[in-house]
Amino acid sequence: MKWPFSQNIKPASDLTPILPPELERYIFELYALESASPERILHVLPVCRRVRTWLEPCLFRTIIFNDGFDNKLPSCELDTIQRASEAYPGALEIVVTNVLLIGERQDTVELVMRTCAGVKNLFFSGSKPEVFDLSPSLRRLHCGLEVFDFSTGITFPLLTHLELFNIGRNFGTSDSHPLLVESETLLPNLTHLAFSVTTVIRMLPDIVSCFTSLEALVIVSTYRVVSSTPLLPEERRVFEDDCRIVLVSVSDYIVDWQEGVLSGEDYWTRADRRIVNRQSGEVDASKFAVNFNDSD
Fold first, then answer.
1. What is the pLDDT at residue 48?
2. For the chain, what is the radius of gyration of the CA atoms?
3. CA gap 248, 294 in Å, rounded
4. Which branch of life, at top level (predicted)?
5. Closest among 217, 206, 147 to 181, alpha carbons compared
6. What residues form DSSP beta bridges with 27?
7. Backbone dihedral region of 237: left (phi > 0), alpha (psi from -120 to 50 degrees) or beta?
């Protein structure tokens, strides 16, 4: 899928405005903000030059650097970001909300994050913690545990959702990880925590106790039928004893992240629904597993 900014869109004409310019711009920008997919924004760019000037930066609300064949959104290139930044100085810092970076070089990562300093939702597969110095507005983060450098003193005051992958077997044991020991300082507003490995299941009760505001603790499984995930009896009891702890399947991590951006429906929302239903008694507490296509 080709990035729309690089397409040769026919130059728009100058139409005489009917509405006051401020109102006209507000209406078009509101439309763009409600259009998660860039294709909808492309439909209105040819209206006239001023509309294109207002809305073209909105194409960059979500940018992904990933050449996967199953992308729901077009993959971006570094020169596209550079050209957009030059064409609309300062705009990307405001409009870019979601960024997915898979396997990119460190200089690419740093340039993207410096240009898009207002990112709120980041999926990052790299291992360099410096990227977080450039991301003060993060609300959601998917990354490996190794990117946290606790010697820098960096905190995540706005972060509410965190998924960690590449977790070692000793995470959460008696020799507690700094992320847990210093959770109130590092992650004071964290409400949702997820792990993409099952090795931490027995430690989940201890992990829950480290986060006083935690509303959801999710184990993410790639089994299409999540009940097929192998669990020992004592591991099942961990889920059954706390309605906030759920097991959720995804068909593909990256696709699920993109679906969340486009529709608002991802494993976080499915986990939240199941937790609410378990807490209310609508669903039995033993029903802790959620398939990726479940509607409740």
1. 74
2. 21
3. 10
4. Eukaryota
5. 206
6. none
7. alpha
Find out whether 121 and 101 touch, Cβ atoms under 8 Å: no
Do 167 and 199 touch, CB atoms closer than 8 A? yes
Q: What is the pLDDT at residue 228?
A: 67
- pLDDT tier at 178, thresholds 50, 70, 90: confident
The full DSSP string for the chain is: ---GGGS-PPPPP-PPPSS-HHHHHHHHHHHHHT--SHHHHHHHGGG-HHHHHHHGGGGGSEEEE---TT-SSPBP-HHHHHHHHHHSTTHHHHH--EEEE-S--HHHHHHHHHHTTT--EEEE----GGGGGG-TT-SEEEEEGGG--TTS----TT--EEEEES--TTTTSSS--HHHHTHHHH-TT--EEEES-STTGGGHHHHHHT-TT--EEEEEE--SSGGGS---HHHHHHHHH-TTEEEEE-S-HHHHHHHHHHHS-SHHHHHHHHHHHHHHTSS-TT--EE-TT---
Q: What is the pLDDT of residue 135?
A: 79
Spatial contact of 20 and 75, defined as CB atoms under 8 Å apart = no
Instruction: Supply 123's token pair.
Output: 């999926």
Query: What percent of the chain clears pLDDT 90, i.e. is strictly above it?
Result: 27
Residue 174: what pLDDT? 46
